[in-house]
Amino acid sequence: LYPLQSSKRCAVIGGSGFLGRHLVEKLLGKGYTVSVFDIRQSYELPGVTFHQGDLCDKQALLTALQGVSLVFHCASPAPASDDKALFQRVNIQGTQTVLQACTEAGVQKVVLTSSASVVFEGTDIKDGREDLPYAKNPIDYYTETKIEQEKLVLKACDKEKGLLTVAIRPHGIFGPRDPQLVPILVDTARRGNMKFIIGDGSNLVDFTFVDNVVHGLILSAESLRPESPICGKAYHITNDEPVRF
Ligand code: NAD
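That is the input. Now the predicted structure with nicotinamide-adenine-dinucleotide docked in place:
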């Protein structure tokens, strides 16, 4: 017997990661039943069911998505990995597999964590709106695959078929347990490798506190209804002002 589908039953793909775990904790606090799907299990939490597997494996996904009506897709290889084939496999083919599995499992909503870098082409953006075009020359291969991933998810939004999708685009995420952004900056500084400036020191960069990203993800999930204007759209998410770097 499949568990009964309920709007409060969700899955977080990449739920063992930095953002995913913060999202899981907030969802539990809001009364959601949460399944985590990830290639690794990095913690234990009462009320969370862990499914260890690769998101490129549809059968493994289908097991984890039984009875689930809402899926948050927050999994990606680390941007620093520089492994083209891995980005291609996980972010593009894997996302196709996630969407197929969601359709087969009767999932109603998919919320993707995309990236603000999908519109960045090397020139500062201030007050950038969502109608900016995708970067023609993405800054790296990770971003190239995040663009394709976002297009796939937004294109899959189909009210007739009963699958609604939306994407949230943060830039650098910081907060407790951040494994990358701040630790890498601190480590680089400690090794004395930050004693030079690229450019004239006025480049803009945007950071978002992890709780704000989580808030944006949950708000978009809860607002995603067939009549909602957010269906099939992407939204930038930020704190307030970008930082001069
Ligand atoms: P993270 O590395 O902490 O978490 C990603 C998780 O995905 C990990 O737990 C990893 O095990 C899992 N994963 C990777 N490949 C997988 C696969 N094949 N199958 C199943 N699980 C897999 O990264 P994060 O910082 O939490 O990022 C979450 C999302 O936010 C990603 O989509 C990333 O592109 C996006 N994002 C992050 C930042 C940032 O600054 N951290 C900024 C913009 C966008």
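The chain has a mean pLDDT of 92.
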